[in-house]
Amino acid sequence: MPAVRSITGKSLLGLVLCACISTYGAITELSGPKRWILSTERSAYLISVTPEDRVINDWWGPQLAKGDYTVSAWHPKPFSEGPARQEYAPWGGMYYAEPSVKVRFVDGNRDLQLRFKTAQVSSNHLAIQMTDEHYPFDVSLHYNILEQLDLIERWAEIRNRCQDAVQIEVAASALWSFPPRQHWRMRYLAGRYGAETQVHDIDLGQGKFQIESRRGASSHQFSPFFAVSEAGTVSEESGSAWFGELAWSGSWKIGAEINSIGKLQVYGGIHDFDFEWKLDPGESFVTPNFVGGFSDEGYGGASRRLARYQREEILPRTHAEEMRPVIFNSCYATELNVNFQQQTGLAARPAELGAELFVVDDGWFSGRTNDFAGLGDWTPDTNKFPGGLKPLIEAVRQRGMKFGLWVEPEMVNRRSKLFKEHPDWVFAFPHRAGSEQRNQLMLNFSKPEVVEHMFGVLDGLLRDNDIAFLKWDMNRHVSEPGWLEAPPEQQKEIWVRHVRGVYGLIDRLRSKHPDVLWENCSGGGGRADLGMLSRTDQVWVSDNTDPLDRLRIQFGYTHAFAPKTMVNWVTDNPDGTSKSTIPLSFRFHVAEMGVLGLGGNILNWSEEEMCAAKTQVAQYKSFRHLIQNGELFRIGSPEEKACGFNYVDRQKNNAVALLFRPFSNFGETREFRIPGLAPDKTYRVILEADAKNPKSRVLGILSGRALLQEGIGPGLNGQFLSAVIKISSVE
Ligand code: DGJ
């Protein structure tokens, strides 16, 4: 936490009349009634203390200007759902909306009455402490201001100073309030296995709309992300959008609630379903971070702020700046049937194509003859790899690639040594058989001995082998969440303790093996969230590799996550699951939208395909710095006849645009408008070579304004056509 700065007494803009003002970096403190303005480059967030000592929000939106507020603050009146626009709403008194915190004191009192106590301000951090009227029980609200990103990180710290334990029943991360608008709309990401992160828009009305996961992982079904706007006023690149994303990898909920007088609040945090936490005297419970932001550049601006946030603040620092390598992963080619001979043979082909990392997926470990056995026993199967992994690693290294390995540490098969030795390590309820998915059970990482065991195993694997990359998978979510040895009042803590166990294990392994790159997978994108992204470098966003499906998945994914974290695949033709037959260049261009991965059985690829693929990989490498570290401007959507993705560097000197015609469009407009460039700069626009155009060629020399207004026509007339356009400023 940043050091607390002393009050400077510097006067601010004459913004608030008669108020005593102090500024600390991004925070301006006003006195009179206590108020704080949290300022970012293009937004402001105003917090006030009411005469009843409640902490409320009364501005979140564009920057405040002189005279927007006077010291005689207007405070929203309580209404029938309870006190309005609270920054964090305790359940108690006449509060009928979704509470942020709900507790049970030892004497049975469940009425929590939090009142403002004190605040600590430093350059970009504000901590507001509220205390119960009677019990020594505090909630501190934390605000971290990321000025350049127009983002505020929020979390709450709940502290018990009573003599007895207090049971926490609800502990949200934040409650966000919004200015009055007639008609709100919410954008969110939903889906299922193989169809993750689909974009949905819903009109909000009186009542609650909640997205959530009760699965112990953030899930394929919903992503912990929201964006709200006034209906009809926001588009991809214009209008006001408020958005947020939760950094939690277990069960969670985010809800938009409109009360009877039309006011919107968004709550979010760890799911309170089946949750309880015993807070012992002197202990604190710290909620996950819920980052929120305001964009005056539509949904595109919201996504860019989140992507930059991930690149600059969230992703593990050890690899944050590095380019993600071109990967080959064995799973689409060989599934579980891996062995030394065949993987060594396979490795020659990706090396020829320019892959930089060779990853052996599921199937390499002891007893893994099929998916009924082996999970839990993380030593190489001696039938498949008689000399262990070293000879294969050596062969891969000789091909000029690094070596990576798949693991699924939270899982166990009944047919494994681990389960035989520790049948009590799995989640289970008495008198219940326990549900299996993919024939596997889940280890209970709430138990320190389970985590400790797994640390020893994985640490040994990384120590003894030259492994540069670990793919951490999770192919089922929690069921029968019983933790039998725990006292009854703590059994529901597993939802949090398991996630903390996973986090702790990855953190320990990473600090011991800082060079290893990590990939986060959960049967595809079943655990993509900021919590995992702060400890893994990239995400396997879906198992589905059909290029049309991928366009939708990836379009949605980029709303909440940085392209640098998005691993995409070029597999076989026809596609293994959808059986679609789509030109190689289209498949490559779709996969080039983030981190390029090669899958499929490339031993079967023709010489012509190998040659075209080699060219595509080399092209991708020539512009991947823009894809991975640039700012993304989306063009249209995959549901339309034209869609594209323009990745621009921060200085707006260079860009690369991936353009697609997913559907036939006979006689339709053929131009693509290109957003994100500097209107007054002049650019050379080059169409990259592909199978149809063996030579790259200049499409024009145009200003950024012309590229946005009139666009360019790369000649994509027909279905499954795509192009790569390289754009560079000419002075
Ligand atoms: C599910 C993952 O999403 C796949 O990529 C693959 O690793 C399989 N698990 C392996 O069992």
Description of the molecule:
The protein is 19% helix and 31% strand. The strands form six sheets. Strands 7, 8, 9, 10, 12, 13, 15, 16, 20 and 21 form a ten-stranded antiparallel beta sheet that branches. An eight-stranded parallel barrel has the order 22-23-24-27-28-29-30-31, surrounded by five helices. Strands 6, 11, 14, 17, 18 and 19 form a six-stranded antiparallel beta sheet that branches. Helix 4 links the parallel strand 23 and strand 24 (402-407). Helix 6 packs parallel to helix 7 (494-512) and helix 10 (584-591) runs parallel beside helix 11. Residues 1-18 have low confidence and may be disordered.
| Low-confidence residue ranges | 1-18
- Tell me the total number of β-strands: 37
Alpha-carbon distance between the two ends: 45 Å
Assign the structural class, choosing from mainly alpha, mainly beta, alpha/beta, alpha+beta, or little secondary structure: alpha+beta
Number of H/I helices: 12
Bound molecules: (2R,3S,4R,5S)-2-(hydroxymethyl)piperidine-3,4,5-triol
Calculate the mean pLDDT score and round it: 94
Query: Percent of residues in helical segments?
Result: 10-25%
Characterize the overall form.
globular
Largest sheet: 10 strands, antiparallel
Radius of gyration: 27 Å
Strand content: 25-35%
